[in-house]
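Mods, move this if it's the wrong board.
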Amino acid sequence: MRVRRAAAPRPSRTRARTTSTAAFVVLAALLPTTASATDPQEVEAELPYVCALPSGRLPATVRISAVFPERAENGEAFTPAGVATTVELPAEAVADLTARGAAEVRPATRLAVGVAQSEAKATATWRGSAEPVPLPASGPLTLTTTGDVPSVAGRGDGDLTFTAGGLAIDLTPGPADPAAAAPGSLTVDCSLAEDAPDQGLLATVPVGTGAPGTSGSPSPSGSPQAPGSPEDGPGDRREERQGDRSPKVLEPSPGTAPDRDDVPPCRYDEQHPPTDVSLNAYVTGYANVKKLKGAAYLPPSCVLIEQGLPETGPPDPEYLIFDTVSYANFHYRERERTPPFEATFLSFDFAPVTATMVLEQTGPMRIDSRMRMSLSDFTTITDTYVRAPLVLRVLDLEVNGTPLDVGSGCRTETSLTSADPDPAKFPGDHLVLYGRGEQIIGLPATGYLLLSGGTLSGETTIPAFTGCGTDVEDLDRLLTASVSGPGNHIKQVQGQTCAIAAPVFPSPTNEGQCTEDLQPYEIPVAER
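Not the wrong board. Structure tokens:
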């Protein structure tokens, strides 16, 4: 295991001209610098694991990277940043997946991390996900996942330790033949090898004013208690008190749907009259900003959809295939954009940077769906790609509560861009989101379907910024250096659509799809 501290950046040479104080404030706050009183700990741990694969229990290598604070105050919650889990599975895993008819695999990981302070212990689950990875022709399979992790707070003075534990890897294979049914998913359980260095220790964060490594934790009232002191009482009471002193793990709590009064209206009007195939729905979600190691919440936004008519797809002896092309637009105050949303990010010196932004269309969103119905059991699988040309526009910017003038035209130079699975047919800059849905006769649909909604995800590059600032201060280069770049994950949740021509209202026998004034009945909840 290697633990490296981040080095403070070397000062760059500057030109001999006046630069306002605001520019330096923005640069210091937006860029993840380490020139602060307490440097963060950059952890890169390489650990041996043993994984239970269909072909047997085999060794694997797991690399875990994260950034921890150098120390924390008693009761202060902090979140490890930049968490990534890389798993190198042996070649036998590739053979197991290939035998299932897979050509690629979409991974998700669940790593149990032990958090301990003195004798008190707790467990945090670090979850990660990634886009599909093609299976290699030979050699091991390497998967890297990223995601949000719980915050942690120590309860007393003393070292807070983080130790890697059991790892579960959920593998969702993609078929080698696009017309074939998707192979079944696979969960691989892995355990830390007995010879793992330091028993899987990832990091140690001193908590409180005492010196690192202080023995014992104070009681909840703050008075120190020796672990074996008479005040602890009987064993069961001691365990109860120890539980009270356990490090606090703050799991991201599932959200709740906003009140209807807090979301924008979503209805057709005289300027946007509905047709027989008109749908409307709310969408919400999160978008990561990789450089700032944070995520922006995208509030519920109205989307007006014109559903296309299915057309017969390519012939297949085992499936009926239908292709549908639909089009959609955001609808907010007669403009094709989302409502303004606010995001706050922290640099390592805890300087808050708050930006108010919107996503704005530069063309219609295209929704391509391919449904494959099995002729043997009538199960249907639908793959959907949403292609959206969207620029990111910055309306307001504050650093440490001080507003900076970004001007009226601050935006990305081009649309957010993704790697398109069919670039020859769909050239140009656009965001790509993907979702898969499945429906078995007699059961509710799972995954994503245009009509019932669900989760769509993708990865995007944020382009350079332009038009940011004033004649006195040009902020383009600062925003570009701080925000722009590849590897930004987006997870969007679409709610149930309302079919305007045939609305379904809530009743004792039906779940509502439309309100009385033909707005979407369901307001979805964002998921990380």
